[in-house]
Write a structure and sequence with these properties.
The chain is of the alpha/beta class. Helices cover 43% and strands 13% of the residues.
Amino acid sequence: MSIVTATLGYPRIGANRELKKALEAYWSGKISTEELLQAEKQIEQYNWQQQQDAGIEKIGVGDSSLYDPVLDWSVRLGIVPSRFRSLTGLERYFTMARGQEGIPALEMTKWFDSNYHYLVPEISDYPLLPPDFSDFLAKIASAKEKLGQKAVPILLGLLTFLRLSRVEVGQDKIFDELAARYVDLLRQLKDLGVSEVQIHEPALVLEEANQWRQYYERLYDSLATVGIPVHLVTYFDDLGDAYPWVVQLPVAAISLDFTRGNNLDLLCRYGFPKDKQLGVGIVDARNVWTVQPQPLLATLNRIQQVTSNLCIHPSASLQFVPYDVTREKQLPEPLRQVLSFAVQKLAEVVLIARGLKEGNLEELLKAKEDKWQAFYAFSPVNEQVQKRLESLTPEQLERQLPYEKRKELQPQLPPFPTTTIGSFPQTPEIRQLRLKLKRGQISEEEYQQAIHEEIAKCIRLQEEIGLDVLVHGEFERTDMVEFFAQKLAGFAFTEYGWVQSYGSRCVRPPIIYGDVVRLEPMTIREFKLAQSLTKKPVKGMLTGPVTMVNWSFPRIDIPRAQQAMQIALALRDEVADLEAAGACMIQIDEPALREGLPLKKSRWEEYLRWAVDAFRLASAGARPETQIHTHMCYSQFGDIIEHIERLDADVLSIENSRSNNETLLQIAKAGYKKQVGNGVYDVHSPAIPSVDQIFHQLQEGIAHLPPQQIWVNPDCGLKTRRWEEVIPSLKNMVAATRRLRETEGLQCSN
Ligand code: GLN
Ligand code: ZN
C-alpha cells in the first residue's frame, strides 16, 4: 500500500484579496510593475506555506497568475493574435485580458461548469510567436527552492487548451507545433531537477473526448519520451466512455474526481492499471462543506478493493473555495463547524491519508460525524415550506392562459418598446452610503431616504430619455443574488469568503444551509415608490431561482432542485405581492441558467427539467394580465432553446454584442414566438454607441424576427457604468428606435 497527499492548485487572489488590490493600484498607475509582481509572489509564498504547514507531500505549484492561467498559457505558448503583437510585456498581457481603445480583448467565458471565467485563446494568426516559458520556469525554480521535491509544477494540458480555444488555423499543423513546445517545456523542467509534473486535462470528462483519442495518444506518447513522470489530472466529472483508453495512456498517475459523476463505477467495472498511481479527488473543491464520513468511507472502501497505490487530493484546484473558515466569526457555530474552506480542505486530505495508512479512518472521522449531527439538529427546518412543495400541483406550474391569449390582456406599448435590464450606475456615493450604514454612521432611515432619492432621480431621467418601460434602478442591491439571499431565511453569509470570478473580480457567494423561506416582502417598497412617480409601467425586478442556486454554495446533502424550488416559492409570493402593489410587468432574471448545465449532454434533460420547473413555479402564479420578463446573458443557448421556450416568459431579453448576434440568430431559427428584447449595445464597454450603430443592430433584429416581437434594450444591467456613459447611450438607443419606427411606418399610438 502506498498513500501520498497532493494539491491541484490553490486560491490565487490572496487571503485578503491582495491580488485585486494590487491590480487595481497598478492599473491606476499607483504601483510599479515590480510592486505588482511582488504582490503576486507574496500570495504564492503564503499559499506554499499553508500547504506545507498542512503536511501536503506533493504541492501543485506554478498556478499563480496575474489575471488568468489560461491567458498565461496562451502567452507562454506564443499564441498572441496579431492585434496585440505590437505591444509587449504586461501592457500586452493586460490588453489581451481587458482590451484598450481600438484593440478588443480576448473573449471571456466560463471555465467548464464553474463560475470562474477564463480568456479564450485565439489561435488565429500564423506563424505563432516563439514560445516563452521563462516566467513559468522562474516560478518553478523558486518553488523548488522553498519546497524542494515537494514542488510539482501544474501544466494546463494541451488538449484541454485546444478544446477551449478558438482555432482558426489548420488544426493538425497547430497541434504538432504546440505538442513539440510541450515536449520542450518538459525537458526544461527536467533540467531544473523537477521529478514529476501534473498535467491537467479536464477536457477528458467531456463527451467528445473520444473523438480526440488519437491526439491524446500522440501527445502523451511524445511527452513520455522526456522521461519525467507525468501525473495526468482530470476533474469536474467522470471519464465516461473514454475511461478504458485514458487509463492506458503512458503516464505515471491518473487523477479522477470522486465527488462528481460516476468514476467509482467505471473504476470498479474496468479496473485500474497496476503500474499507475490513482489520484483520488475526494475532498470537494467546488463546495464549502466538510467531508461527510459515511459516503466518504464507502467510496474509499470500494476504491481500495481495486488499487492501493493512491494519491489523496482535493477534487480540483481549491480556487473555487475561500481561504479559511476560522476567520468567519459571525457564522453560527454549528454551521461553521461543518464548513471547510481551502485550509480546512488541506487538513481533510492529510487526515484521510493518515487514516488510510493507519487503518483508523472511521475513528478519525468520528469528530466530523458529530459535527454533522449537531448541524442537522441546528439547521433551520420549515415544515410549512416542505409541505407546500410536497403538495405542488401541475397547475401551479402553468400560466392561466396561453401566451397568445394573455398577450392581448397585457399592457399595450409602442412598437419596439424600449427598456433597460434593471440596474443603473452604482456610483461611489451609493457604495459609500452602504458603508456608512454598516459602520453605523448613518441611520437606516437616512439610508432609505438617500436610496429613495436615487430612485426618484432615475425615474425622472428615464422619462426624460423617453424610455417606454421603466425600472427603479436597483440602487439598494449590492449584488443580485446577495440582496435576495439576505431577505430569505436559510442563507448564511461570510465576511471574507471571496472567490475569484475573473481577473480582479471576486464574489462572495452566500451559503444555503437550511430551508429557504421568505420572511417579508423583498422588493415592494422600492417598486411602489418608483411606480408612484410615473404613469409609464415600471418592471418589478427579481432574481430567478436557478440563478440564486447556481451563484450560491448549495447544500450537498439536499438536491439542488429542491433548493431551487423552495426559492421559487418565495419568489412566487413576491410576484403576488408585486401584482398587488400594481406591477403589470415583472422581470425574473436567469443569467446563470445555462451555467448549471451538466458537462455531459446525457444529463442535461434532468437539470433542465427542474430548472425550468423552478422558473415556472416562481412565475406562473402571475395573472394573465401580468407580463413576465426574463433576462439571460453571456451564454449561448441555441442548443437549449426549446427549454427557454418552456420558461413561458412573455418577454425574453438577451445579450448580443459579445456573441455576434448568435443568440438572436438561434432564437430566430428556432421560430421563437414570444417577444425578444434584442440587446443593442455592449454594456461592458465604456464606448458610447452611436445612433447609427444601434439602428444597424435593430435592423439585424427585424431582418430575423417579426417587428411585433421585438423589444429594444441594452445587453445587460448598467450598474458598472457611469452616468456620463449611460445617459447618452440610452438617448441614442431611443433615437435609433424612433428612426426605426419611422422607416418601418410603425407609429406610436401614444
Ligand atoms: N437585473 C440585473 C441588472 O440589471 C441583471 C444582471 C445580470 O444579468 N447579471 O443588473
Ligand atoms: Zn445580464
